[in-house]
Amino acid sequence: MGRALLIAALTRLQDAGEYKVTVVFDGQGKKSETALDESRVQVLFSAQGQTADSIIERLVAAYKKPGDIIVVTDDFPEQDTVRSFGALAHGTEWLKDALTHADVETQGLIQKIRKKNPRKGSLPR
Q1: pTM over 0.85
Q2: Is a pLDDT exceeding 70 seen at residue 101?
Q3: Is 13 inside any structural domain?
Q4: Are strands 22-25 and 42-45 parallel, antiparallel or unpaired?
Q5: Domain total in the chain
Q6: More confident of the two residues 103 and 28
Q7: Cβ distance 69 to 59 under 8 Å?
Q8: Cβ-contact 5, 89 below 8 angstroms
Q9: DSSP string of 67-96?
Q10: Are 19 and 38 contacting, i.e. CB atoms less than 8 angstroms apart?
Q11: pLDDT tens digits, residue range 48-62?
Q12: 123 in a domain, yes or no?
């Protein structure tokens, strides 16, 4: 999955309301970047000579509420490291399930809203 597709999927997850999402990419020399709009997914790129894992570890270490951060990676040593800081760690299969759940929840909410507020003259669905 390309970066843009991943960010779009993570935006849907965040929009579903259960998670505030930050995604960290290896920047390959790009300047660190963040989204300024609080409603958008925060995107960070590691600096040259730095890995995404090192940024993730710093973020998790700085956050003082154990269990409130979920790191998604299939890198088992990285999962162990972030767990040692008190974060939860899951693989990408968990993320796929969370994305599916968020999409189903969002569609259910849309259907509920449509039933309460049917549009006059709209086409049947």
Answers
A1: no
A2: yes
A3: yes
A4: parallel
A5: 1
A6: 103
A7: yes
A8: no
A9: TS-EEE-S-HHHHHHHHHTT-EEE-HHHHH
A10: no
A11: 888 999 999 999 999
A12: no
